[in-house]
Every structure is written in structure tokens, then in C-alpha cells.
Write a structure and sequence with these properties.
Chain lengths: 171, 509
Amino acid sequence: MDATSPPLPAVPLDDEGALTKLHPNYAHALRVRTTLTAIPFLIGSLVLETALAGEGLLPKGLIAGTVLVIAAALIIRIPARRYSARGYQISADRLRVVRGLLFRSDTVVPFSRVQHIDVDQGPIERFFGIATLTLHTAGNHNSSVALPGLGEPLAREMRETIRAHIRRETL
Amino acid sequence: MTAPQRTAPVSVILGALGSIRSAILPAAAIAFSGIGGDGRYALAIGVGMAAALIGTGFSWLGWRRLTYTIGESDVRVESGVISRTARAVPYERIQDVSLEATPLARLAGVVAVKFETGAGGGDDLALQYLTAAEGERLRQLVRERREDEAAGADPGTPADPQAPPRAEEAEVLYALTPKRLLTFGMFEFSLAVFAVLGGVLQYVDNVTGVNVWDVDLWRSWLSQSGETVASLGPMAQAIGAVAGVIGLIGVGFATGIARTVLRDWGFTLTRSPRGFRRQRGLLTRTDVVMPVHRVQGLVIGTGLLRYRFGWHGLSFVSLAQDAEDESHVVAPFAQMEELAPIVATAGFDLPDEGTRWQRSSKRHRNDRAVLGSALFVLATIAAAVFAPTGVFLIPLGLAVLMVGAQLYAWHFRRFALSDTQIFATTGLLSPTSRIATRLKLHSVEIAQGPLARLHGYATVHLGLAGGSFAIPGVPLADARALRASILATIAATDYARIDAPLEEPALTL
């Protein structure tokens, strides 16, 4: 039976099309989150700096300066790149989610395999008016596929669209 | 029938025995440790007695407070001494019912009944212990209720579940004969017993105060015996070394055979109208039933050596878990032609001559070879600089071996699509094959690390319920084509409708 199997389609369907960008506020939300994460490290480096100030082992401001430069790079540069690396593509019967700077991942979930759908908003996301749409499938790998950084109304609209495809609510 | 029932009263005794068993070690520790001076034996016995008494009390309380109800549409269990828990599992969500009997339980004629729901983790429903007859009846009942629910009122099924049709014509698909079991055990060669010995030594260390990790102690012992050995002459030393190696090999084989016999004694796989049924175990006997349509995929594994002799093992991937394992072993040790009928019964096809295999990327192979040997190459450099002359040859040899193994592994890394299925094999020195139905996949992901993007290949992850399915090193264009064709199949059918509509129109996931 395998001998007669048709060759793989040479031209993939609509899965390689242009990606839709996320809401621009997503980059801002990422920056705020990174800043919040960086604050304890900055405080720690300042404490270390003060503690070692009398020793004269290191030039003044070396530790705190290094941490500050790394934090600044993470806050200014990385979110913009992560924002441009992410994207999604929604078609009639499937959702494609692309993410990752170094480790790229390109996932397609057909709506007919979605078990349930979440729309989440954390405090930072609420402030920026964006939301995360999460599709849950029954597969062990990709049991939940999250798409962050959608405008909140859009996320709800997409949820309704996808829900309309799930002919029977499960679990 | 629907009134709440208790488990078998003998469970109290079994539970109490369990707590006594866990009290023995602390009691022994007290007896040998010297806590309490001269009265330490009395103290140890006291502690043991107290543990046994408290254990029996709790066991009895737990038994009193646990009831189960076989309802119209679900199984309910209420339990808990102080905080009560009530759990209800609908029949249609029960993946399979397994019966397990430990040696003590077998003596008492009872079994532990587990209702697998595929909820993940340890959140399944279990009744410990019911009489063997009650367990078997319950399993029969759950199966019938489930089918009744699925098919409405089935005229073929008797309405009275007290008298289930016991005459299920079962066809034996696979059985492990003692001789085959012995061969299997040889291939399960294991030196794990030495790890266990290490653990025991550690325990002895704690309890007796003989410090087994004390280097000086060992040195004094070794130098004593070393002098004895040295006085025997080179011939005797060589004989001693050979005997040591033979002893080690013997222990390895014995461990393998013992473990295999304990686990797989009397392994039988039967096919009844209800599904696959597997029984195995020498001391702890387990009895698992898997409905055919719950099988999501197949894994055919083998080993470095046994592969050269044509031995393979077959497992079913399903939502239910099998003793911590994600898939159920249905034929642990068989030749390929013996597996073929089982695979066919499960509704799958094995790849044949006509299968159009596609290879993984050669760049992926080269990257793997470089990465795999990188550590050894670093060690070689370090050894060449710092270690005595000649030592660097060891890591260098390992690096060469690693490169060779990775180049060889490329031959196993391939995949194929048929009209309804996807095949993929991976492995370093022996192949592991996975087969899945295209329809029963849930998502497709193309993942690429930095090297993979540089060299144009990707890992394709397929979402399979109850298991994993990844194809590494697929050239990017092939990966995209693969994804497109799989998605074309799965997007066309709603998952709720594919799961054997004749048997079960209700969604079963």
C-alpha cells in the first residue's frame, strides 16, 4: 500500500505565508517584565559594591556597571528582537505560532484538535491591553500552545472563531 | 448494587503488614545503634509494636471511611479519615481497568483495582484491595457500562450486570515461554546490583558505624589481601583477574534473568472482543486490558546486541500509563514476524519494501558527530598537555568511536509517510521505530536550534496523545512538506469524530 502512496505535495499549502505581527505593546510588556526581573540583580550588585568598597580590590563601579550594562542590553535590545521573531498566522482551520530567537519553533495546531482555549491576562498585560491566547491539545508534546501579545479584543475574537470550529466542547 | 460498598476486610491486615514492614528498619536501627543502653532491645520491640498498632489503627480507620459506589454512569469513591474526598469518574472516561496483585495480596486472594483515566500523574482511581472475583466483576461491569453508554441499549448485552457473559473467546497473540524468557533475561544483562550493594553499604555505614567510605580502612584491607595475592605469583594473579571478570559477568546475567523473570513470568497477550489483555509477573501479577481504539501509536524498540539477533519489543502508546512508563509493553521480546500479527490486530501496518523512506540531513549527521565527540576532543587536548605521555590516546579513541557511532546512526534516522500512517526510526547503534496514525496527531511543530538554522534542517515534533513523536534532522524543505501533508489529513477531521464512531460515538479523550 505504501508503494502507491502519493508523493509529498511539492508546494506546501498556506503554512509558509507571511506572519501577522503581534501587538506593539508586547515589546513594552516584555521590557517591563525584564526590568522587574533585573531590579533584584541591580540591588544585589550595589550591595556587593558597597561591601567591597573598602577592600580596594576592584576599580569602583566595576560590578554594578557590568550588571547595569547587561541589564540595559536585555531591556532595550532583546525585547525588540523577540517581538520581531514572534508572529502568528490564522487561517480557516488552523493556527500557526512562530517564536524563538536562537531556538526557533514553528507550531501549527489545527482547530479540530483543540481541546480547550484560555485567554489570560497578567497585571502587566492588563496595563498594556494585551492578552495571551492558549490552545490546549491532547498531544503530550505541545499540550498547550501559547500565543502572547495579542490585543485583548483580538484575543477574545480569535477565541470565538476557534471555538466555533470545535463542534463539540470537550472535557 | 448502587449502595456504597467497602473494600475487602483483609485490606486492613495487608495495610497493617505494610506499616509493620516499614517499622522493621527503624526498630533494627535502634536495636543496633545503642540508643537507650541496655534496654535498647526492649525499646526497639516497643517502637516496632507501637508502629504496628498505630499502622493497624489507621489502616482500619481508612478502611472504615472508604466506600465505593458503582453508579449508573460513573464510579464514585469517598475516602479520607479527617478530610473527606469524593471522586467520581464517568465510565466513558475510563481508559482501562487494571488488576494488580502483590505476593501478599495473592496469598489473601485479593487484587488492587486501578481505573486509568489518562488524567496524568497519579490522579487515577484505585481500590485497594477487592477480592479477585469482585475485581474481575467490576472490570467486566465497567466495560459493559461504557459500551452501553456508547451504543445506547445494546440488545446483545444482558441487562443484569451481575451475570456478565464470561465466555469471551480470547485469542492468544503472544506468550513468553520460559525458554524465551531465559534468552530475554540474558539480553537484560545488568550490573545494577552493584548500585544496590552500594546503597546497602551506605545503610550499613549509618547503622553500624563501620565507615565504608573510609579510605584508610579499605587500604589496610587491600594491602593485606594485596600482599597475599602478590605472594602467589603472576599466574595466580592472572587467574584471579579472569575469575573476577567471569564472576562479574555471571552476576550481570543473573541480575538480568532474575529481574526479567520477576517482571515477565507468564507474559500473555490475548485479544478478546473487548480489547487487548496483558497478564504478567511472577510474584506481583498484573492484568491490564486496553481497548483497541485507544491505541494511539506503536513503539518498536530493540537493544544494541539483541537487534543483531533479530529481537524486538513492541509497546502501545495510549493515554493510560503503565507503571511509570508512558506506553504499555505488549510483546517485550519477539522476532519481527511475530510482531506483525499484533501490529495488524491493533490496526496498524508495518513498513514494507514499498515504503518510501526519507533520510535525515547529512549535515545533521555531521553536526551530531562533531558535537558528540567535542567533549572527548577537549579531554584529549587536556590529556596531551597535562597527563603523562600516552594517556591522551584514551579520550582520542573514544572521540573516534563516537564519530563512528554517529556516522553509523545516520542509517537509522529516517521517516516515511503512508496514506494513513507515519513511520520514523531513530537510534544510535540500534533502531527504535515509531508508528502513528496521521489522523490521531494533534499538532505539528518545526523546531530549529542555531546550528540547525545554519545548516538547514529541523526537528519535527508531532503531538501524540500519551507519548512523544519527534523526527530529528529533517531537511527543512522535507519538514515543511511533511507538515503540510500531515496537516491536510488532520485538519480535515474533527478529533471528536475519529475515535471509532461505531463503537463509541461519544468523545473519548
